[in-house]
Amino acid sequence: MKAMFTGTILICILVAISGEAGADNRPQSRIHVGAKGGVSFATLSGDPYTAYDARIGFSAGVFVSIPVARNVSIQPEILYRQKGAKTSGYCNDLPTNWTLKLDYVEVPVLLSVTMSTAGNVTPRLFLGPAVAFKASFRQEAKNQNAAVSVDIRGIRTQELCFVVGAGMDFPFSSGTLSIEACMTPSLKSIHENDLGADLKNIGYSLLLGFSPGRR
Question: Most exposed among 20, 24, 142, 161, judged by the fewest C-beta atoms under 10 Å?
């Protein structure tokens, strides 16, 4: 994963350089600014293995699409993304549900490649690294007698992630509507210290976006 992370950064730099070098040989392209948002499904993976359930939340934010070559663009984003997981068990002999709520401000830098247009639909593939910063870390426990929510410590306040996904763009007269699905696995354990556990965030998102103008 670390090699993939570094390799993607190098690819983005090389594409940007080659794009600038060929700028005089391609039509003038526009920079597009837009917003996106939708539902997210997050859980934890790694060691020790536990059958975590998904935490359903949301992801939302803004992006800038910067063309660097024909059908290729660099897309920085700023997103609020909800991660974590859910599990269940017993507390004082009572069935109890626990929810780990890890919310981040995530900053991906994506390499986006547009495929051949099929009618009025343009398929798109994207991937790239992301850095996530703590927004809120809480753990919630609920059973028939009580509901408790507390701040939690010992979780990394920053994490490195890798984003990979696909989408479709639907251009129309006043802008471009997009639908995309992506996976965002983290590259390191969520724990600050080595506690004998290697649990990592992994999230899936289904997003709807809009940007003025045709992409």
Answer: 24
All residues at 6 or more sequence positions from 165 whose CB lies less than 8 Å from its CB, including other chains: 125, 126, 127, 180, 181, 182, 183, 205
Q: Do 61 and 79 contact (CB within 8 A), yes or no?
A: yes
Q: pLDDT grade, residue 107 (50/70/90)?
A: very high
Global pTM exceeds 0.85: no
Number of domains in the chain: 1
Which CATH number is 16's domain given?
2.40.160.20
The whole-number average pLDDT for the span 160-174 is 93
Residues in contact with 17: Cβ distance below 8 Å, sequence separation at least 6, in sequence order: none
**And the tokens for 116?**
């051949």
Cα three-residue angle 159-63-200, rounded to 5 degrees: 20
Cβ–Cβ < 8 Å for 166, 124: yes
CA distance 200 to 207: 22
Peptide bond into 95 cis (omega under 30): no
